Task: inverse folding
């Protein structure tokens, strides 16, 4: 089945939010390009999604 949508979920604490995602059936991908800002997972059907600090106080500084 082709990817139909990619979701990014805001998470101020990636380590804390990773655990519930895995408990709900997600698997963490082997490749993590920017693990301090994005964590990439696959849902049980194999569709990718990310947890990210972008848009939170914990996220990277905004460029001006």
Result:
């Amino acid at each position: 089945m082709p990817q139909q949508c990619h979701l990014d979920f805001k998470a101020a604490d990636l380590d804390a939010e990773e655990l519930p995602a895995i408990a709900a059936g997600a698997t963490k991908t082997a490749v993590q390009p920017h693990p301090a800002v994005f964590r990439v997972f696959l849902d049980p059907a194999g569709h990718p999604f990310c947890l990210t600090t972008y848009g939170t106080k914990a996220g990277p500084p905004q460029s001006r």
